[in-house]
Amino acid sequence: MTIDLDALTALYEDLHRHPELGRQEHRTAGIVAERLTALGYDVTTGVGGTGVVGVLARGEGPSVMLRADMDGLPVREETGLAYASTATATAADGTEVPVMHACGHDVHVSCLLGAAEQLAAEQDWAGRLVLVFQPDEEGGTGARSMLADGLLERFGTPAVVLGQHVAPLPVGLLGVTPGPAFAATDMIRVVLHGKGGHGSRPESAVDPVVMGASLVLRLQTVVSREVSGSDTVVLTVGTFHAGTRGNIIPDQAVLEISLRSTDPDVRDRAVAAIERMAKAEAAAAGAPREPEVEVLFSLPAVVNDEGACAQVAAAFAETGRFLVVDPGAVTGSEDVGMLSDAAGVPGAYWLLGGADPALFAGATSIEEMRTVLDGVPANHSPHYAPVGRPTLEAGVAALVGAARSYLERSVALP
Ligand code: ZN
Ligand code: ZN
Q1: Residue 103 alpha carbon to ligand 2 centre in Å
Q2: Which residues line ion ligand 1, judged by CB < 5 Å?
Q3: Which ligand approaches the C-alpha of residue 109 most closely?
């Protein structure tokens, strides 16, 4: 590797210290644009908000899109790292919140900048690199807004979309899952209508709290009774709001449901079941009108292309530095799949180990590995802390290896 790892580690620690919320990644985008420009990339900023695209074209060859997301999360960092974040920001609802790179998107940005440097230095390839630095993955609007701003029309339809997500697996391990790899997600709001009244006279009211409580329990049967044991669905009722005090029967209850799935037909069946159960509970309670069931937000599953997975896994193996495993589908979600879906091209999105291998040193079986894994803080935890430098080195090598497996090999210029 010819890149300056000390400089890259310093850049990573700086990004970690200065995280920004989704759609507010102005400082990060500025650093990315400056760095890419210095490396000789053709840089466009402000794509879909704060998105940045860097293009490096050399002769005839395929176009390869590499994607990194840039946003942090409203989490108060508790890692105790020397470069921990103390940043705050104003959230969309106007509240002041702490911000942390708790999902490791600073690793993604740093690794892609490192790969940009390495690929710019290597002279023996031909083709076109399209590096996408995407805003707001966590809010689910980033890929969508870059596409709506003409990502494919302005920078061309690539032959493949590649990317990685850092995970609490040991450094040196890469997780590549062909087929569904990250779940689709839907956020669904149910508004149940009752009839308000005095807590002492329930016979003259229709109680939406009881209706809602009954619905929460009934919804548990979507996964256990309506979906095949071989299909993946997770349903969580994350909020349930009703009422103002104990002696008043309120007139409505509002529930927010997070649904995860990997198959669009199964997803449709689960959404239909939620709607059916909400209506049936309302009818059973004698509600004055039908509930509103609204899908607030949807992201499709990330479905990795089998051929692309085999190709990048072979490229990873060729580097001689990685153990490549198939971890199976995870129930977390990602909007990277929208890029390859919109382009109609294969995509491969893999997991990058970012945990200290020393933690796993004593583990001699899968069970022991699992026990260690359970103790390692995971993404979104205030304690989540990938080991910087080794993770960056691995992440750059993985991106470069995967990209080079698609780019044309050419004779190095003298
Ligand atoms: Zn996340
Ligand atoms: Zn993430």
Answers
A1: 5
A2: 103
A3: 2
For 224, other C-beta atoms within 10 Å of its C-beta total 10
Contact by Cβ (8 Å): 92, 158: no
Cα(106) to ligand 2 centroid in Å equals 10
C-alpha 138 to ligand 2 mean position (Å):
7
Tokens (6 digits) for 117? 């440097």
Task: Specify the 3-state DSSP secondary structure of 136.
Answer: coil
pLDDT at residue 413, as a whole number: 56
d(C-alpha 103, C-alpha 379), whole Å? 5
Ligand 2 geometric centre to CA of 139 (Å): 10
How far is ligand 2, taken at its centre, from the CA of residue 165, in Å?
Answer: 7
Domains of the chain, start order: 5-183+301-409 (3.40.630.10), 189-298 (3.30.70.360)
Specify the DSSP class assigned to residue 330: B
**d(CA 103, ligand 1 centre) in Å:** 5
CB-CB contact of 299 with 143 (8 Å): no
**Spacing, Cα 330 to ligand 1 middle (Å):** 12
* Whole-prediction pTM: 0.89
CA of 380 to the centre of ligand 2 (A): 8
Helices 105-121 and 5-17 cross at an angle (nearest 10°) of 150
**How far is ligand 1, taken at its centre, from the CA of residue 67, in Å?**
15
Note the pLDDT of residue 4.
Answer: 95
d(CA 349, CA 161): 8
User: Token pair for residue 244?
Assistant: 């103002």
Structure tokens at 239: 């909020």
Phi and psi based region of residue 50 (left: phi greater than 0; alpha: psi -120 to 50; beta: remaining): alpha
Lookup: tokens for 120: 């710019």
Nearest ligand for residue 107 CA: 2
Q: Give the span between the Cα atoms of 242 and 210, in whole angstroms.
A: 10
* Interval between CA 381 and ligand 1 midpoint (Å): 10
pLDDT of residue 323: 94
- Return d(Cα 72, Cα 393) in angstroms, integer: 22
Residues across the chain: 414
334 alpha carbon – ligand 2 mean position (Å):
7
Interatomic CA distance for residues 19 and 60, integer angstroms: 38
pLDDT along the chain (414 residues), means of 10: 92 98 98 98 98 96 97 97 97 94 98 98 96 96 97 98 96 96 95 97 98 98 95 94 97 97 95 98 98 94 97 96 93 94 98 91 79 88 96 98 94 61
